[in-house]
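Pasting as-is:
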Amino acid sequence: MTWSPNSWEQRLHAQEVIYPDRDALAAAVRTLRSLPPLVTSWEVERLKSYLAEAQLGRRFLLQGGDCAETLADCVSDIIANKLKILLQMSLVLIHGGRRPVIRVGRFAGQYAKPRSKPLEVRGEQTHPSYFGDLINRVEFDPEARRPDPGRLLEGYKHAALTLNFIRSLSAGGFADLHHPEYWDLSFLARAGISDELRARYQRYTRQLGEALEFMEALGEGSFDDLTRVEFFTSHEGLNLRYESAQTRHVPRREGYYDLTTHLPWIGERTRALDGAHVEFFRGIRNPVGVKLGPTATGEDAVALARALNPDNEPGKLVFITRMGVDHIGERLPALLSAVRAAELRVLWISDPMHGNTVKTDGGIKTRSFDDILGEIRRSFEVHAACGTILGGVHFELTGDDVTECVGGGLGEADLDRNYASACDPRLNYRQSLEMAFALGELLGALPPARAPAIDRRRPLAQPASAASEMTTSAKASHSETTWSRWASASTHSGGIA
């Protein structure tokens, strides 16, 4: 089948939402097509070059945010808190892992959620399930649960507002590594954060400042690659009407870009090889993620890689494993071995959240901190045994002081205190920071950078870059040189050792 932004309409569409008002849907899609893009193609290509380096172990991907964003959460404090916790976690990972971190948020578009059942039953009432604020509303009544095409435009507008605020914060120095104290969330000083955890984080920020001062004293004039960090956006590309309406040709570039986000992903429920989602995402130039659960086979992984990345382009494909702590050791090796044997370029990252969801005796959905960390530890072990690289992690988390996951200071009795998620449980601030310290120790046990034989035999292709930007190869060279100097400075100043 010849690909086009709408060729997916001829395929079976898992998780399809039926809109009662077809005329209103067509009007909303026409409007979306006419609106400016939310992200740019050169941002997408820059992320792709970073992901290619992560495939070689030279960078590490930290992806995190809400299970399901809500339109009501488009508030400055909530957005800033999400950025702060990702910044703080990345600082800990940089210190422990001795490599740059790619920061990708599950925000500015994570408004749609797959559901196991199309209908929800409560007592005698049955209504459509809540599919996220991009589709309908969470209140359990007929009007709220009716799929509303107008919410496609509302989702776009709130994503644009979120991105605008993030870019403004970054341009204004919010994400300046000279001033990590700007990132401190107010409850860093609360009793829930242990003195030891607080002291470790504050020691890391102090060492970072000393390292940067040392480099500046040596006469380094530019620290753009290190001192002003970047954020990229991601979301599950569930609603293909929303995605395809913002997919377009870009001047002076080949192919189509989905400009709703930098890194869309295909969910475990929608990754059928002959399905609508694989058909749509095989045709775009963005890097694409795919969730792989415990039912995925090596043959599935190879077929998906060939469909979504037929040219075996570096940085193009991200496999996100989500198998659960009880299954990862048994199921993951077959996937790694099959993809490696086929010599396919893939960035492997771990989603330790979705395979570890349970319900308490009281019916509350939760996750265990220990199970989440356990799946990450086991993933590192399996990758080491198979000679592959675990290049990132994918968390559902928040910068707010919620009580949704047990462990890290919370028990089941605490869950009712501030359970705020619209769908699945998230790590709170303390749990996220503790997870980052544990992950940093795991990264610190790895060599600073290592590449499998397949990548040494095949040099990375250089993606196109905007005329106004440094070429990708020059940026990578400058970034690696600057990084090595900074790591050396950290050692001299008592930082990274």
